[in-house]
Amino acid sequence: MVHQAPRLLENDMLNVSAPYPYAGSTAYIDDKDCLGNDVVRKVRIIEHRPEDRVLIGIRDRLAPRESASGNRTVRLSDLRETEQPEVHQPSPKPSGRTKGRRR
CB neighbours of 46 closer than 8 A, spacing ≥ 6? Predict the structure, then answer.
């Protein structure tokens, strides 16, 4: 009896996601739809480019023809790992006692 290695389907190989922010990973970007409403789009990072830029693939059913190929170059800092934006808590203001004495 001959043992064969399990066959991987092409779709299985293509669906493996890379960790954020590497090429192949999923990210989210704030954008506007064709009516001017704020939306969060799920994108895939395709390639890193110079000067903190990345090529992303937009797979949004709401605007499939936004660009000819569905790809766009954006700043890496415009992307985030989660769909929800990070909430930055303001640092508490120091009270008079923690400021220290003036000399």
Answer: 23, 54, 55, 56, 57, 71
Residue 21: is the preceding peptide bond cis (ω within 30°)? Answer: yes
Return all residues near 75 (Cβ < 8 A) that are at least 6 apart. Answer: 52, 53, 54
CA distance 71 to 43: 9
Distance CA 70, CA 86 (A): 26
Question: Higher model confidence: residue 97 or residue 9?
Answer: 97
Quick check: 42 and 61 in contact, CB under 8 A?
no
pLDDT score recorded for residue 27: 93
In the DSSP assignment, the letter for residue 78 is G
65 confidence band (pLDDT: 50, 70, 90) = low
Residue 93 predicted with pLDDT over 90: no
CA–CA distance, 78 with 71 (Å, rounded to integer): 15
